[in-house]
Amino acid sequence: MSTITAPATTQTDQPMHRRRSFGAWFKDKGWRHLVGVVVTIFAIFPLLYVLSAALNSNGTLVGTAGLFTTIDFGNFVDLFNNPDRPFAKWFVNTLVIGLVTSAATVFLGAMAAYAFSRMRFKGRRVGLLSLLLMQMFPQLLAVVAIFLLLNGISDVVPWLGLGSQLGLIMVYLGGALGVNTYLMYGFFNTVPMSLDEAAMIDGASHVQIFFGIIMRLVTPILAVVGLLSFIGISSEFVIASVVLTDPDTQTLAVGLYSFVAETRSENWGVFSAGAVLAAVPVMALFLFLQRYIVSGLVQGGVKG
Amino acid sequence: MTLAPQTTDDAAVATSPAPSQLKRRPRQFKDHGPDSLKGILVKIVLLGLVDAFAVYVMMMLFMAQSWVVLAIAAAVTVLINWIYLRKGGLPAKYLAPGVFFLVVFQVFVVLYSGYIAFTNYGDGHNSTKEDAISAIQIMAQTRVPDSPAYQTSVLDQNGELFLLFTSPEGVVTMGSATEPMSTVTDAVTDGSGKAISVPGYDTLNFNQIIARQDAILDIAVPVSDDPAQGSLRTPDGTTSFAFKPSMTYDAATDTFTDVETGATYTDNGEGAFAAADGSQLSTGWKINVGFDNFVRAFTDPTLRAPLLSVMLWTFTFSIASVILTFALGLFLAITFNRDDLRGKKVYRVLMILPYAFPAFLSGLVWSGILNPQFGWLNQTLLGGAEIGWLTDPVLAKISVLVVNLWLGFPYMFLVCTGALQSLPTELDEAARVDGAGPFRVFRSIKLPLLLVSIAPLLIASFAFNFNNFNVIYMLTGGGPRFEDTTRNIGSTDILITLVYKVAFGQGTGRDYGLASALAIIIFIIVATVSAISFKQTKALEEVNR
């Protein structure tokens, strides 16, 4: 930017773009751009790095020194041709476990939120308080007990015990009434009661009101809760690693960890390819529903 | 749960007549179930499925002879049926499914952790004393001198391994680790007279035997139901030899005697048999040890010092993470809180990418970037420097914090942006009229208001980071290891990764009792911190509305 001082004139200032000095521009806006660029580099560099490593079939950690020096899809081919580490199966397992769990979570949570929002009963306040407190204690704290409980279930009902995906889903559903119910409860309260009453006068039963009116009006929050729980479950490592022992039943989190757990540098390229494939769908969903998620986050915690 | 009586307008409105068995009552919300035919059918089918499953589980429990669990299962089944078949009690009908899972997999497992914390449950202590005694007799065996060799084939049925023996006299028998030897009549033999397969079982070939050699070497097929009779074992999957117990158990005195040395082992009261010199037999049994695990955590020399550092680091890590992410997030929110900034949207999208990236992958990706020998940072950016980003205790801690900052600042940026925009602008203007500069306005007006609404999130963020397993385990695995302990504990371990390592770790053996005791300690810490801070912020006001 050149700084030209306008010649002093006795006429009135013409309506033209006022040139500011570089210093003034920087003080007002320039530093904000500088911060933006620096933080953006910090934010996206690791993502670019993993993408570059995925497209570089040298495959070892040492080979990924440059960024985007070679581009080919050798790693992706290797990823799907390794019978000991069935990436495609992990992907499907993660999808199935995630979808089933998040759908059931949304349903159980919505039913509970409906009860808390629309009915008055003994124990309601205590129940709401407990839900709020329960958010503080993640399930993984009890991972030892969960492992031993499933071990005991294995002796009685083998297809629900250790090593079973259904068993894992059941464990995850233990957290269904956690954070999400409170979020939904707040949202349900914004649906006016007069709608319920009108429907009741028309002879609708509580089931019809729940499915026909409430569930339809709160669809956005259901989507957000479903997505948040899906993202959470697809990243869950501790319980999944303890429950799922057979590589064929494992999820992406457990499987991809096993890629780099022992020899971190050898499988690096293939691991990166797997990481890219695992991350892209989640990130796309996230950015697509960004607005809803952000409002959900803020509503969940901030009063008002 | 009972319903407070609630009156609604009792407008008698004609509905589509539903041919139902229920007596028609005046319409009143919340005191009866659905009375349409479809509703009843759905209800009956669902309840039927639940009951069918419950009966199946109860039969299994009956066969396993676990009477206590059977009684509980029966009670729960009755309760569920009562909730859904009675009239009224509507809230329970909506809450029951979620609460059921909550009680079993969240409340019960925490209580169960509490129980395990007071036992010596773990490797070598995972069953009853009777089981331990027979296991010792099976395990402690030596080969009978000059005994004949039995030709052997390894069979598999649904994953369970069986050994098929052909004695020198040509008698064919088979058995497994749990089933004593029994004679086989329908075995297929090869030319030499060695039995090689049995209908209904798969015979393992040489490669399969190599692949499962550890399991095959562990098989000791009891000769009969009496462990004292000895067993057959195979060192290579093709021949087996007779083994006799080297330990004899005397039920009258409750002691084991070593046949060769003559040493006697007695019940030492700690869930194991021990000799006079204190040496223990490796197989023990589960007993209640009271506060022993908690005492051990704070007195055992291999645990005490590392555990204190781990606790200190856990607090440092979670508090520093909250402060760092909040500071950066707030700074960015203020920086970009301008409508006339070009490219604001682009910055925002790029900055929240780390938050959208799956959390478990972040630690792994960063571990590659920061790898001291081959990592991108040392190799490319610093020209081959050998800086121990993950191997030096101090640098590893800093690395963990930086990576967690990368993971966490977008969330704080979003939340702070939302909170800033919801602040009333009049205050700002009033303060400026009174002559306050922008910095003063921020410090005295905006920040306090912001903190009021964001405090609950900061507490939740602290609780989350306190148990932030993924970032630690994926990035450093808790390392670099402490040098003053034989246990696998390191400088960046937090309590939850320590629990995982103690319970499921490789090499040191599994100690469920100690791991649960540590989990209970975490539980107490988080509960205390949350309770105090929530009292401070009165975040629970919402519920009182």
UniProtKB/TrEMBL annotation, chain A:
<dbReference type="InterPro" id="IPR050901">
    <property type="entry name" value="BP-dep_ABC_trans_perm"/>
</dbReference>
<feature type="transmembrane region" description="Helical">
    <location>
        <begin position="90"/>
        <end position="116"/>
    </location>
</feature>
<dbReference type="InterPro" id="IPR000515">
    <property type="entry name" value="MetI-like"/>
</dbReference>
<feature type="transmembrane region" description="Helical">
    <location>
        <begin position="34"/>
        <end position="55"/>
    </location>
</feature>
<comment type="similarity">
    <text>Belongs to the binding-protein-dependent transport system permease family. MalFG subfamily.</text>
</comment>
<feature type="domain" description="ABC transmembrane type-1">
    <location>
        <begin position="91"/>
        <end position="289"/>
    </location>
</feature>
<keyword id="KW-0812">Transmembrane</keyword>
<feature type="transmembrane region" description="Helical">
    <location>
        <begin position="128"/>
        <end position="149"/>
    </location>
</feature>
<dbReference type="Pfam" id="PF00528">
    <property type="entry name" value="BPD_transp_1"/>
</dbReference>
<keyword id="KW-0813">Transport</keyword>
<protein>
    <submittedName>
        <fullName>Arabinogalactan oligomer/maltooligosaccharide transport system permease protein</fullName>
    </submittedName>
</protein>
<keyword id="KW-1003">Cell membrane</keyword>
<dbReference type="InterPro" id="IPR035906">
    <property type="entry name" value="MetI-like_sf"/>
</dbReference>
<feature type="transmembrane region" description="Helical">
    <location>
        <begin position="169"/>
        <end position="188"/>
    </location>
</feature>
<feature type="transmembrane region" description="Helical">
    <location>
        <begin position="209"/>
        <end position="233"/>
    </location>
</feature>
<feature type="transmembrane region" description="Helical">
    <location>
        <begin position="268"/>
        <end position="289"/>
    </location>
</feature>
<keyword id="KW-0472">Membrane</keyword>
<keyword id="KW-1133">Transmembrane helix</keyword>
<keyword id="KW-0762">Sugar transport</keyword>
TrEMBL record, chain B:
<keyword id="KW-0762">Sugar transport</keyword>
<dbReference type="InterPro" id="IPR035277">
    <property type="entry name" value="MalF_N"/>
</dbReference>
<dbReference type="InterPro" id="IPR000515">
    <property type="entry name" value="MetI-like"/>
</dbReference>
<feature type="transmembrane region" description="Helical">
    <location>
        <begin position="310"/>
        <end position="334"/>
    </location>
</feature>
<protein>
    <recommendedName>
        <fullName>Maltose/maltodextrin transport system permease protein</fullName>
    </recommendedName>
</protein>
<feature type="transmembrane region" description="Helical">
    <location>
        <begin position="447"/>
        <end position="466"/>
    </location>
</feature>
<keyword id="KW-0812">Transmembrane</keyword>
<comment type="function">
    <text>Part of the ABC transporter complex MalEFGK involved in maltose/maltodextrin import. Probably responsible for the translocation of the substrate across the membrane.</text>
</comment>
<keyword id="KW-1003">Cell membrane</keyword>
<feature type="transmembrane region" description="Helical">
    <location>
        <begin position="94"/>
        <end position="118"/>
    </location>
</feature>
<dbReference type="Pfam" id="PF16296">
    <property type="entry name" value="TM_PBP2_N"/>
</dbReference>
<keyword id="KW-0472">Membrane</keyword>
<feature type="transmembrane region" description="Helical">
    <location>
        <begin position="346"/>
        <end position="369"/>
    </location>
</feature>
<comment type="similarity">
    <text>Belongs to the binding-protein-dependent transport system permease family. MalFG subfamily.</text>
</comment>
<feature type="region of interest" description="Disordered">
    <location>
        <begin position="1"/>
        <end position="31"/>
    </location>
</feature>
<dbReference type="InterPro" id="IPR035906">
    <property type="entry name" value="MetI-like_sf"/>
</dbReference>
<dbReference type="InterPro" id="IPR032550">
    <property type="entry name" value="TM_PBP2_N"/>
</dbReference>
<dbReference type="Pfam" id="PF00528">
    <property type="entry name" value="BPD_transp_1"/>
</dbReference>
<feature type="transmembrane region" description="Helical">
    <location>
        <begin position="40"/>
        <end position="61"/>
    </location>
</feature>
<feature type="transmembrane region" description="Helical">
    <location>
        <begin position="67"/>
        <end position="85"/>
    </location>
</feature>
<keyword id="KW-1133">Transmembrane helix</keyword>
<feature type="transmembrane region" description="Helical">
    <location>
        <begin position="512"/>
        <end position="534"/>
    </location>
</feature>
